[in-house]
Amino acid sequence: MIKHKFHAIPTEYNGIKFASKKEAKRYQQLLLLIKAGEVLFFLRQVPFHLPGNVKYLCDFVIFWANGEVSFEDVKGIKTPMYILKKKQVEALYPIKIIEV
User: Distance between CA 75 and CA 35 in Å, rounded?
Assistant: First the structure.
């Protein structure tokens, strides 16, 4: 197994590969929130296109039963590149990325 540079442990759940245990756990939590009726559905790895042919992938876009939509990124370590891309996305798109 290849070690991740930030010690994240790649995890598979229900045949889906996640970059870390933390991301897989959040996925499981969202499935429970769907069963509870709090979340309608969610999308994974949603791309946001940035200038210079750069792409930012948001871990989860969540559509809540109350009509709200949230954008979540599961983070262990905030790299300078992540911080830069997050700022660019929030400047170009009318969204706020929540870190979990």
Answer: 25
Q: Are 42 and 33 in contact (CB under 8 A)?
A: no
Q: What is the pLDDT of residue 1?
A: 46
Residue with the two structure tokens 């499981």 = 28
pTM attached to this predicted model: 0.90
Contacts of 52 (CB under 8 A, 6+ apart): none
CA distances for 57 relative to 1, 23, 66, 67, 71, angstroms = 24, 13, 25, 23, 11
Three-state secondary structure call for residue 42: strand
Summarize pLDDT for 34-61 with one digit per residue, the tens: 999 999 999 999 999 999 999 999 999 9
